Amino acid sequence: MPYRIPFLKSREKYASGTHTLAKAWNFYKSVREELKEFDAIWCADIETFLFVLLAHGKPVLWDLHELPARFMHNPIMKLLFRHLERKCRVMMHANEARLNLLDSMGLVSNRKKHFVLRNYPQFNEIDTEYDDKYRQFDSWLGNSKCVYLQGVNDANRAAFESIDAVMSFPEIKAVVVGNFEQKILARLEEKYGDDLSHRIFFTGMVKQLKTPQYIRRCFMSLVFYKNTSPNNFYCEANRFYQNIINGNPVVVGNNPPMRELIERYGFGVSIDDDGSDVDAIIAGMKQLVSQYDDYKANIEKNKQNLLWDSQDDTHKSIIKKIFA
Q1: What pLDDT was estimated at residue 172?
Q2: CB 215 within 8 A of CB 238
Q3: What is the pLDDT of residue 124?
Q4: By C-alpha distance, which of 179, 232, 175, 183 is closest to 199?
Q5: What is the pLDDT of residues 155-165, one digit of tens each?
Q6: How far apart are alpha carbons 84 and 81 in whole angstroms?
Q7: Among 230, 82, 242, which residue's Cα sits nearest to residue 178?
Q8: Angle, in degrees to the nearest 10, between helices 292-302 and 278-290
Q9: Is the pLDDT of residue 170 over 90?
Q10: 220 φ, ψ (degrees, to nearest 5)
Q11: Given 12, 109, 244, 270, which is the most exposed site by the fewest CB atoms within 10 A?
Q12: Do 92 and 117 contact (CB within 8 A), yes or no?
């Protein structure tokens, strides 16, 4: 499909992640005339509410793969959100738990407009070329069992607690893929000294298609999102899916969307904590190890349910609703 990425002066003017409303307005003005040529408008991200608000004569789909935090608490913004809902033909959510939360807050008036489309991956591809970084990791790991940790780059994702839990198992190592916060690293080094580098391997940034190389050398993963905000607590990460698709059972927190999949398919363990309690993580890891063969069998039996194509019926329903 042809596409165009418009040049936005606001992206040069403002740092990444800042002044998002100004950037959205700049984006809208840049493509406003082009929108007249299309049969429907598909908007993604919260700031594109400007497109929904200003759209006329076109069916609109608003993809809320993040919770619309700016609309969730202020009464005036709630009224605006309900107005935006009326303007949409379809509103899309990343999981049922997110939709239910908005409904419980009085932000959903017409449930028939709302669809859940989970961000299931197609993580079957793997880079077949192994670089020096991977070979260094492979040599470091040897015959030890390894826990896969990715995206643990801040305290909200239980970075310290996850590694602290791994360190309680002398026979287990862990690989941390991606960036890692230096303050948390210093805290771990102070507690564990040289033993940390013997037990935990930090890769730094790794290309997406190389991450399965590390996953397939591991036997389990830990994925936690602390209950620090609705968007954090109701998250289900790509690395959660990626590990399961590649055969690794997972230990997760009590986050509703991940817990629901864990309990439905038996992909691992969901602890009764958000990742703040190291002892609870350790207990979850012990439970996973004790029933490891069962969890592996459940993955082989059910992992196809987490592929993007498993939602084909939902895709068709959304398209039909847009052009109804």
Answers
A1: 98
A2: no
A3: 64
A4: 175
A5: 999 999 999 99
A6: 5
A7: 242
A8: 80
A9: yes
A10: -165, 170
A11: 12
A12: yes
- Whole-prediction pTM: 0.91
Do 275 and 158 touch, CB atoms closer than 8 A?
yes
β-bridge pairing 250-252 and 220-223? parallel
pLDDT surpassing 60 at residue 320: yes
Place of tokens 């606001």: 10
Closest CA to 244 of 264, 226, 262: 262
Distances (CA, A) of 157 to 25, 73, 286: 32, 24, 20
Q: Find where tokens 């690395």 sit.
A: 239
Q: Mean pLDDT throughout 261-288?
A: 98
**pLDDT over 70, % of the chain:** 99
Q: Are 174 and 163 in contact (CB under 8 A)?
A: yes
By the 8 A CB rule, do 94 and 120 touch? no
Q: Do residues 232 and 245 lie in contact, with contact meaning Cβ atoms separated by under 8 Å? A: no
- Residues 6 or more apart whose CB falls under 8 angstroms from that of 310 comprise 120, 304
For 60-94, b where at least 16 C-beta lie within 10 A, e where not — what string?
bbbbbebbbeebbeeeebeeebeebbeebbbbbbb
